[in-house]
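User: Quick sanity check before I run a bigger batch. Here is a single chain. Can you write out its predicted 3D structure?
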Amino acid sequence: MALAAACCLVGAAPPQHPSVPEVLASAVPAVRQKDAPPPPPKADDASDPALTAGFENDAASAKAILRKPPSRFDYDEVHKLNLLRDRLAADRDLARELADRSNLDARIIQAQINALGPLPETGKTEASAITQQRKVLDAKLSVALAPVLRAREAQARAATLVTDLDNRISTIERLRKGERARSVLDPRLWVDFAWDVSRGMSLVAHNVAAAYAREGFGGLVGRLLGAAALVLLGPFASTWALRAGSRALEKRIPTSQQLSSRLPLVVLEDVTGAIVLFFGIGCTIGAFVLVLKPFMAMPALVTLSVLLVLAALMVAIAHWLGRSTLRSPFTELRLVQLRPELVDKGVSTVRWIGIVMALEAVVEGLEQGGFASGTVIDLISALLLIGGGWLIWTLANLLRDGRQEEAHEKHTVGDALDFAAPFSRVLKLLVIGSVSAAAIGYIVLAREIFSDVVASIAIIAIAIFLHRLISAVLDMLAQGRLKRYHRTLHIIPMVTGLLLTLGTLPLLAVTWGYNSREIGDGIVALRSGVTIGRVNLSAGDVLTFFFVFLGGYAITRWLKRVLDLTVLPQFGLDRGSQASIVTMIGYVGVVLATVLAIASTGLDLSSLTFVAGALSVGLGFGLQSTVENFTSGIILLVERPIREGDWIEVGNFSGIVRKVSVRSTHLESFDRHQIIIPNSQLITGSVKNLSLGAALARVVVPVNVAYGSDLENVRIVLLDIAATHAGVLQSPAPTVTLDGFAESAVNLRLLVFVPDATDGSAIASQLRFTIAQRFGKEGIQMPFPQREIHIRKDRDA
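Assistant: Done. Predicted structure follows.
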């Protein structure tokens, strides 16, 4: 409904009762429980007094109500059901607390029994003292378990009654949404409306005459003058000041180029506008109370004042939301990039939707308080809902057709997703349903759809705006003094986005009719824990696991960095050995962090035996290749046949090993291509490691010379070239071998050793350049294929 959705707009839970005193009365059980906590139960205590008289009376009342069929919606009846439901929920929580406290004694006695050892097997006996002590402890355990069982039984009864009452309230609400009044198209509704208005005007005239008799002409004129002064001082002066301040700040914002100087101006504008707005609302409420006090009782005046405050806040939120999300000076904060000529129309449409929502909330409050007849309420609500539907239809068209072309194309190409078009279609479908229901007389259903749609849009828009605002502020900080922490700062938007999502989902659930009390019970259940089999999980356990694991992971990363940069280099280990040690320590640290996180939650690891068995079966059948690669990775890290920095050849691939992990090995080819090789291929297949063992490697440079060359001179020249190259080792000494005699050349080889195999290709290329240069100077001829052709004349020709 509109009033419930209005409370969602201001971030509060929707009221379930029509007045403030009733809301306070509904909190009496909780206050009683908080102010007077029950004493710890004793072994001979049958039950807590709160679970005897009060609980039995509430349980009997609930059973009597639930045995009757659901009745038509009545505010007083629903209010009584909610009060009864709250008392039973308080008794349920109290029973659970008593059971948990009493269970401590039983668990202590059970531990003493377990300390005596298991029962003797059939045919065997144990010491008589142990048997006697076991009997004594069994008797004590029976006494200690009695209050626990009674409390658990009371908890189960209360929980069942609470669930049934929630279902009964939901059923009554659904029946109310199906109630049909006269259609706004029915002329009789307009006739009755005019008749009720005339009677209301007569009643107002009578009240004015009575007030005139009590207050006199001077008193009424004084009240009117005072109210006029408050209105001039409040709404008019506040509106003028708000517009003047906004214009002044809007002129200064474009002149500020940096985000750090523009953002505070926008925040200042919002804060100033909020202060001025609350001042105007206060003056308006004061004028309202001053004028109507002689004509109305104080409780009714307080109720109407609360409705007006709520309506004013809704209009203020709608105005701020439209201006901040559609006309913000920061384009990254705008939810929709409208064309400049349509921005004012969009802001005005959002503002008018807020006004209609506020008026509908006031009408609903008047209906709950019985301040107007049903005919007047039905007609005014129908007209407001039809007008509000037209405004939402206009907003849907703006979202679909009014966006800037550049922003639309960028969004479509970049994200390949366009949410505005389907969202506008959904809005139109909901508007058609709301307007149709209002036109044919289903006022409550139409009001529910309209208020839920408006509240949902507002909640989602506020959440997205806050997330973008936080991201903008963090980006500003990451570019300033906190630039060195930019990686850490970028994690905060992810966390805040998750928190905003978790906070938005319950509000949306309440908006669309989910019982807020059931959500509260769910939160309490998360806090106290949910039992799944033999495992009890709570929100605290999950958070504890997360933070302990995160801390262990951070310590592991820090330890790996310290070892890699400071400790391991002191031992003179090669780079591959250091990388293997650091990788193994990283995996061990993650495993230890996981075990410590599970242990910190108090979870019994033995309860995970079945899960571990199921996982082993799944690993054996469905993840054979993954397990094989994991095992191979462990072997590679322990035996280190392949290390980081090695030059290896695997199949058709050749390159330098850059990373050895537990699943795969990263190989970088000489073309700078990254090749991912599963570890199982490195263990089961043939691998050529050109860097394994000694660091040095032999490089072979083939050399061909023509027949008739001085081979001894060629050998001397080649050895001299090898001796003068800085990258060639002199021990082992370079050698020249004669491989054979080809058709057109004599095949020689220059054999040299280099300190690192990865440098072999570069050194071989440099040697070839030097050989070509020296052979030209020495006159040594490099051969080329030669063929002799003999032409013979045929004798018969």
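Residues 11-47, 406-417 have pLDDT under 50 and may be disordered.

User: Great, the batch can go ahead then.
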